[in-house]
Amino acid sequence: MQVYLCLLVDIYEFCSSFRINLDAIIRRNSDDIVLKIKSERIYLHPMIDFYWLKSFTEIMQLFLSVLFVIYLRIKFDRNSPVIFWLLLFFYIKLATDLYGILNYTSWIATILTRPVLDIYRAAIGAFEMGMLTSWVLFVRAPVRLGTPSKRDILLFVPAFLILPLNLVLIYYFQSSLGMIFDIIKTAWLVLLTFTLFRAERKSFKVVIFSMICWNLLWLAEVVLHEQLSFISEATSWMMFVIAEMILTIGLSYFLVQIIAVPKTLKIENRKNFLPSSLINAISYELHNAFTVEKIYTNIDLSASMVADRINIPVNELSAYLNKVVKKNFNQYLIDFRVNESILLLQEPSAINLTIEQIMLASGFASKSVFNTAFKKKTGLTPSQFRKSVKRL
Prior knowledge:
By secondary structure, the chain is mainly alpha-helical.
């Protein structure tokens, strides 16, 4: 009996000691887990926020780029240099925004394999150079007529060369591409500053300034954090997010301005754009019709008759006069008729013609219109002009 009692006591003491040890182990492990979770939360909480904010701003930019592309393709002629380069800029931006969303949206990044993201990372420099080249060509396009030239396409050679260069640097030299990034961002800042001083419209200045801030913050983040380690990772992500928000605001303002007042941005409407070959053809035909044949002397002459004479649609004739000559059809016609009446009033052989006969011979059907247009051109009425000629 005593043996059994001793055995029970031993078992009880063993169980008690095991429970105490087990509780200590559990408490210690729990404390380790809590400490680990807390330490990870201290590090990961701001990172999660910044990841989400960066993804959100890039999704917003992706949405804006899609809106830009849809609106420009519907509203304007894609053969216009202005629209061509602006569309190309947003096509390339769509690709870069897509890369950002794939790389910084956690649930998407876990699906993709690392090589896929590495290919994007190597191509991002080419995308950046393509965007920069497109934007510079867009800014200088409004002062030029005609479709994009082959010489302009050659400006994209550096963008195409960056991709194979980056692939070589990554796979053969294990480079982080930091130097390439610095060069590209510096090029952005230099060229954008140049275009900022050349821009005349407020809408251009706002979006260019937002791009300058965007690139400056990106360059500062990479240099200060990744290359010099002067700032923390949380600070670097904060700079990323601020940069993307500034660009989002600038692009939003730019889109609103284009939709509201496209003419202030010197963007040609689809109906008003003409290729350079057609401009030259219309100019030649109008010169023959008005200067050689003097079709303006026909009192019943109309825009449709002139368009039929030179074998083009009326809207193309109107577009040519409005965009190239900077006059509407009536102004263009009246100028020729007034010049003809001036010549007739100065012609000795027409001295016996009355003012009304000269008016009709010049193509005018209304005396009031004739007198008004003549005085606007010369500062004198037809009668006063004839008297001044006789005195000479």
